[in-house]
Design brief:
By secondary structure, the chain is mainly α. It contains two helices and no strands. It has a domain of 65 residues. The termini are far apart. 7% of the residues are buried.
Length: 95
Amino acid sequence: MDLKVLKCGNCEEIKLGVHAITLGLAALCGLYNAAAWLSRREQHLALNAVMYAALIGIEQRHVAHHISAMRRSGSASPPPARPVDVPTDPPAVAA
């Protein structure tokens, strides 16, 4: 199977988006499980919170990797700035 998206340097914006969403979801789930463990002290909630913390670390590395890949390829550079027309005369005020 030879998919373009699976090769490094291709579709980095899509990959970044997927990993950023996963990072946000893992953070949300980790916070929920940690808060639930603090209130109920059930063992599986503590295990879930630890596993989500590990996933957060993994996804953060993926996000950083895709950002650096975009910077290397130049796709993360901002568009060139356009000059702004600034009027030199103040507007006339009707009396």
